[in-house]
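Fold it.
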Amino acid sequence: MPPLNFAMVDSGIFRSGFPDTANFAFLQTLGLRSIICLCPEPYPEANAQFVDSNGIQLFQFGMESYKEPFVNIPEDTIREALKVVLGMLNTFNTSALCFCQCIVRVGGFAYSLFIITCNADVKNHPILIHCKRGKHRTGCLVGCLRKLQRWCLSSVFDEYQRFAAAKARVSDQRFMELFDVSSLKHLPISFSCVKW
């Protein structure tokens, strides 16, 4: 059985609420390499044993659940979690670079172009992102990823609201709207729904 609010975000990236023992068999079918937990509490013993026995790397970014409208979501924490999703935490993998040569003919002349592209380093994939219910903290992280993927804000908000439903928070949406992706644009991003 999948965890609460389980969904595929992109190829090799999943989201959900906090998994419990009833979800472990399902999670094993995903072949997870990594889990990002956005809750500040210590990881429960049963979950820690599941992670260890399945060779899954746990990244815990303890973010409090904020219900008050004027409490700031920790932008640096979201930024570091995005680096894990993108496989870029403290490393730059040059094997993610791809070189292509292209011949372009204009009039009677032929020009040789060399194109360098970068793909996300998927060393942490498949990866599961979760918080307690898979709504707010997970929704903010996924929303910021969507901004990096150049989704329009209305689509980012639609996805957030699909999971948060009646508990959608204006403060979360404002955070996603104002989140500055410019410091992350140098990171290689190439997922199934990205077209550069």
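Residues 80 and 89 are 7 Å apart (CA to CA).
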